[in-house]
Automatic annotation (TrEMBL):
Keywords: Membrane, Transmembrane, Transmembrane helix. This is Uncharacterized protein. The keyword Transmembrane applies. It comes from Curvibacter cyanobacteriorum. The chain crosses the membrane at residues 20-39, 51-71, 77-97.
Length: 102
């Protein structure tokens, strides 16, 4: 006898999932590059600039590819929106606590 586990099937709402991955994925990628820039603050600027610039495409494309595994477009928007709020909140908090510059 199988246990009655009711799983939500993946719904094919491609427009909602794609727009969530494209818009919120880009915002998440930019926030993660900002956090990486703050974490690598002692590194010389040319090297740090290249690292934070090249971290954006893998994070963005990873989010854009992963978004199709969500059960619905609404869940994709909610999860990526929450991750964006956390990432941008951490970025602004860390930037406020440790300002960069003279």
């Amino acid at each position: 006898m199988k246990p009655s586990s009711k799983k939500t099937p993946i719904q094919p709402d491609w427009v909602a999932k794609t727009s969530a991955g494209a818009l919120l994925g880009l915002a998440l990628a930019i926030a993660s590059s900002g956090l990486l820039s703050l974490a690598l603050g002692t590194m010389p600027l040319p090297v740090r600039g290249q690292l934070v610039m090249w971290v954006v495409p893998p994070v963005w494309l990873g989010a854009l590819g992963f978004v199709y595994l969500f059960a619905s477009g609404l869940r994709a928007w909610l999860w990526l929106g929450s991750l964006n709020l956390i990432s941008w909140g951490a970025f602004w908090a860390l930037q406020f606590l440790h300002p960069v510059g003279p």
